[in-house]
Amino acid sequence: MKADRRDWLAYRWLGLACLALSPLAHAVLGGAAATVETDKARMFASGTVQPGAQYTVHEMTLPRGTVVREFVNPAGVVFGVAWDGPAMPDLRQLLGDHLPEAASGVQAVRRARGGIGPVSSSSDTLVIQSGGHMGNFRGRAYLPQALPAGVSPDVIQ
Amino acid sequence: MTAASARRTLATLFATLLSGTVLFIAGCGGGGGDNNNTAPPASTPTPTANQVKVTVGPNVFRNPNSLVTSVTICVPGTGTCQTIDNVLVDTGSFGLRLMASAVSIALPQVTANGGIAAECVAFASGTTWGAVRQADIKLAGEVASAASVQIIGDSTVPNAPSSCLGQGVQDISTADALGSNGILGVGLQSADCPACANTPLSGAYYNCTSATQCQPATLPVALQVTNPVSLFASDNNGVVIQMPAVPVLGQFSASGTMTFGIGTQANNGLGSAKVYTVSPTRGTFATQYNGVTISDAFIDSGSNGLFFDDSSITQCGDAPGLYCPASTLSRTATIQGLNGATASIPFSVGNVDQMLATGAYAMAGFAGTGSGVFDWGLPFFFGRTVYTAINGRPTPGGNGPYFAF
Description:
Largest sheet of chain A: 7 strands, antiparallel
Largest interface: A-B, 46 and 67 residues
CATH class of the largest domain in chain B: Mainly Beta
Strand content of chain A: 25-35%
Number of domains of chain B: 2
CATH architecture of the largest domain in chain B: Beta Barrel
Mean pLDDT of chain B: 90
Structural class of chain B: mainly beta
Radius of gyration of chain B: 21 Å
Helix content of chain A: 25-40%
Number of strands of chain B: 25
Number of helices of chain A: 4
Number of strands of chain A: 7
Oligomer: heterodimer
Shape of chain B: globular
């Protein structure tokens, strides 16, 4: 907890600085790989990079322990994000302009069939799944059209 | 008038009618657990009434497999009470949350840090936002005195801050979006954010100091929204939910019981049930399915289906995420507790659209995709007695947290 708090304080100032300097309100899904750094700063996270042949994974740990992975294709575009941990990440930050589409997709499914619990929505342009329960969340979102050739969406975890 | 607003009007009407009824009943003074001073001396104390009815059936929110009960709340220490129906019974969360639109009595607000306390809560389906107020929560003969409750959509606090809204895919702070009048969280923990006692966290507790300003803030555990069962004077180590079996493709309704306490009275013993311990922080155990071990598995009465990934099962045409196989499928998965205990669980996956078309509300075969988890939702409870033991509380099966069945 103490380490978390130090991180939090350190990144808080970095985050505030970015907020003040950058006109970019949102990263990251569909954004350039550089926006991953914006996400890290905004969410006060620490992280690592795992380069791969078909895609690169940027992994970051948020102050409350949730792990976020962002998947970048060879063109440098973030094509998927996944989260796993005790608290939800900031989806406004992670999904950016895609969040309203995700919300309306989920709401359409709910209107048609009711439902409580995990949510899911899928279209040609965006797939999102969000599940879990209090203290334990897992989910992912990706852009099917930005998946590198030959890569299964199953890797986005 | 849109369908949504019609449903809302109906919901409000129902809530109003019901709250009126209940106020009347409460006014008639059915003795609660507060009459100890006047009770005659007895050699055998009468056990506290520890069981409430829980139901799945038609509801104004048109939600299938929604397990609900009625909850009585009172202004702390007074006889000013109200009973609210259609409150979701949720073993996946901790604490009572009620829609402001369903609450008609004036509950005192929780103040801290020089302002009004508010809370943002992330659920799998979205976020709820509202004030923290205190109430005596009464369920059967059990009382959680002056317990903090989240009042969702409470107009006395400013609109949800963006740091809250970002915690979910959608805002579910209306009865329509929530699909119930509230959520009764009777899961594996007591307080809902112990870390918030020391650190202000985005998307948890907030301090509202003006009509527009709420900032993340600390809140002592004693003032946090807390699993009311953990606050009962007795029968406070967990709950037992018992539901009858229902058909795979469903039936109109089903009713069962929720009993408070595990091994504390004659009616809540573990019997032959086996204990499956879970991660004390995440409430998860393992489930093996199709040769794959999923470490993120849990039992959750607040999920209306079994949610797991199986790419071989056809999803519903315009509702990806729900399963619509041409005919009912039989599957088996194995639950493994952290204590090594295992159970092979046969289950069925039916066609969701076919079920809904019959007008059913209680269906054992309702299922969908899981995004890497195995979520044993309400269908798991049909035909079973399921025990949910609270973290750190002693029971005849060992300390919580665990599930047993």
